[in-house]
Structures are given as C-alpha cells and as structure tokens.
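hey
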C-alpha cells in the first residue's frame, strides 16, 4: 500500500457508508432540514454501524478506528446533509477525552459516547471570543474545594442533545494565554442551560445552540488535563475538529462533482449534451482537481496523526484548502445546474450552504492562513515541507 491508497477493509467500509447515506440519510434530508434535528431512528442505525465509537478505543466500547478511517467516514457521510455529520461521525470532544482525560474520565464518559447513548458538546466560542480563544470571558472561580463556573457559549454543535460538556473557562484572570484557561468535562448538571436552537445558513440538524453556565459547580476531578492547561487540551480538540472539517469539505467537493457530472451527461442544450460544452468541461476539470488535492491533503494529515505526530501545519493547510475548495465546487455545481441549482428542491443548493459554513467553523480560513504563515516564519521552508514529513 502506498501513501495514497486505502486498505481494502477501509474501502469496503466506505462503500457501506455510501449505501447508508443513499438509503437512510438522503431520503430524510428534507425532514432534517425542516425539523433542524436528526431523527431518533437514524441515530440508532448509526449506533449499529459503530459510527459514534470510531475515535474511541475498544476497551471503552469504541471500535478503535484510525484517524484515517475516521476522516474517510466523515468525508463519506458529508455526501448527505452536513448537519447530520455532527452526530453521525466521530466527535472532537470524545477524541479529547481519550487523549487528555485521566483513566476515571475515560471510563466514565467514553462508553456512553461510543454507544450513542449521549453526545458531547465542545463549548469554546463566545460573543467576544471565537478565533481568539484567549479572549474568553467564562470564569471558573475557586471556592473551597469547588469551582463555580459562570458564562455563556455560542454556536455549540450537538448542544441540543448533549449530556457531556467540555467547557473552557478562565481560572487565572491575571494571565492571558498559556496558564489562564482550564477545560472542564461535565455531565449535565444543575446550572447548565441550553438556549434557543440556532438556524444557520446550512448544517441543519447539527444541534447548535447557546449553552449557559449559571453557578455550575465542579471539582478538580472534572478538570480535563491540568488546571491552567487548557491550551494544551484545546490543541487536541481543535486539531481533530479541523481535520474533520477538512473531511466534511472534501465530501462536499466530491458530491458536487458527482452530481454535476451526472447532470452534464444527461441535460441537453442547443441539441447537445451539456457536458460537451467547453465551459462545462473546464468547470468539471477544476472540480476534479479540487477533489484530488483536498483528499490528498486530508489523508496525509490523518496518516501523520496515526504515526503519533502532531501535524499542526498539515492540518491547517488541509482545512484551509478543502473548505475553500468546497465553496468553489458547490458554486460551480450551481452554475452547471443553472436555475435548478438555486432551487431548494435540488441537492446542490444545500451543498452550497453547508460549504459556506465550513470556512468559518473550527477556525476561519484567515486564521488558518495566519497559523500557516507563523509556522513558516518560525521554522523556515525546510527540505521536508512537501511531500515528505513535517516542515
């Protein structure tokens, strides 16, 4: 197997997920869009496939899949409604508990997450702190042997159904940045309130909502990692979140190309197939290139994680390229479909809305550019920048 091939068992798994999307998810797309929620029976079927336990080791009830396998799963599921992938796929909070949690936390939370009996919400963004994690205002104040948490988080995926909350809070207000923030992992307890469910440009059913913490009590046993070690934990969470954002975007690139190719081969204009016109051929070529490059970047970053490395630069590049490419591909798909492309009755309109959201979530495109540039300036180009190892 070379660096771009997938093992046979993973190809077989991908095909089973394609069937799951086509047979089970896509027929419910209109229902998901209207209700802005995922049907319970669809979640039960995803649990039967083991999708919730992909990033969780077998000893905690998961299936112990590699980051490559998780990325392929998210990519494939993204052929369906984007919001569903926030439930029917591995979650970054589960990966963070696996990587940064202690043994008691792993045994307490991971089996429930792996089974789909509950879901985890990553509570970071606030009204004045999104890309700037150091600007969060949520506070955890020490009172005796307890912490009292107060604050409000916005745009929190899976909040609608969450029973586990990873919340970032300032525990040392005398600092800004490293040492100031602690991440707590909390079950649903008094003081945690879920606000109105968000209606976003896309991603219907993602369960996004405001989460408010009012005098929520926690102890040191609820700290994920160490007190003041929040930025290290956030690195785990955001790294996986960006990897899977790249996977979602790659899925949109591939689906946009697939439906556009089908449409171009069937639709006739001026006595010829749409795909015979040069303008359409050029768009299909650009979309093909975007699928190819996005997938190579995604799989490369995932393999580096599986090798035990911390591919910050590669993940940022994959997230940046794939999410920008998804918007390009969805836009070209609409152009190829013409008036049908802007109708809510057709798939490509939904792909376009979902794609636009991915350029914002889990670190905007400009934040990825700043990270890439800062790493470049700090480390230099390096002989191994591409295609070999870390730069």
């Amino acid at each position: 197997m070379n660096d771009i091939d997938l093992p046979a068992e993973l190809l077989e798994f991908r095909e089973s997920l394609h069937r799951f999307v086509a047979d089970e998810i896509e027929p419910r797309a209109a229902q998901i869009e209207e209700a802005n929620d995922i049907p319970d029976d669809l979640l039960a079927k995803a649990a039967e496939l083991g999708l919730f336990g992909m990033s969780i080791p077998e000893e905690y009830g998961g299936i112990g899949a590699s980051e490559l396998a998780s990325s392929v799963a998210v990519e494939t599921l993204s052929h369906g409604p984007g919001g569903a992938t926030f439930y029917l796929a591995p979650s970054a909070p589960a990966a963070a508990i696996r990587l940064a949690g202690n043994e008691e936390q792993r045994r307490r939370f991971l089996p429930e997450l792996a089974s789909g009996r509950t879901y985890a919400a990553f509570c970071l963004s606030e009204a004045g702190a999104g890309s700037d994690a150091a600007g969060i205002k949520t506070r955890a104040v020490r009172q005796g042997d307890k912490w009292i948490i107060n604050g409000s988080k916005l745009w929190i995926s899976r909040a609608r159904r969450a029973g586990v909350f990873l919340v970032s809070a300032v525990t040392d207000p005398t600092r800004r940045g490293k040492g100031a923030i602690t991440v707590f992992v909390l079950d649903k307890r008094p003081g945690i309130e879920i606000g109105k469910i968000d209606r976003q440009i896309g991603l219907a059913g993602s369960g996004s909502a405001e989460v408010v913490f009012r005098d929520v009590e926690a102890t040191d046993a609820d700290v994920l990692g160490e007190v003041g070690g929040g930025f290290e934990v956030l690195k785990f969470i955001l790294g996986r979140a960006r990897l899977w954002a790249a996977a979602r975007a790659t899925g949109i690139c591939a689906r946009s190309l697939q439906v556009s190719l089908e449409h171009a081969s069937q639709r006739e204009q001026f006595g010829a197939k749409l795909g015979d016109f040069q303008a359409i051929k050029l768009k299909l070529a650009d979309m093909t290139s975007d699928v190819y490059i996005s997938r190579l970047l995604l799989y490369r970053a995932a393999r580096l994680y599986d090798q035990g490395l911390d591919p910050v630069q590669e993940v940022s590049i994959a997230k940046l390229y794939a999410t920008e490419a998804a918007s390009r591909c969805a836009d070209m798909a609409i152009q190829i479909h013409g008036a049908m492309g802007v109708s809510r009755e057709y798939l490509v309109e939904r792909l376009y809305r979902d794609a636009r959201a991915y350029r914002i979530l889990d670190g905007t495109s400009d934040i990825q550019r700043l990270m890439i540039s800062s790493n470049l300036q700090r480390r230099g180009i390096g002989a191994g920048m591409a295609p070999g190892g870390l730069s």
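The longest helix spans residues 230-266. The radius of gyration is 21 Å.
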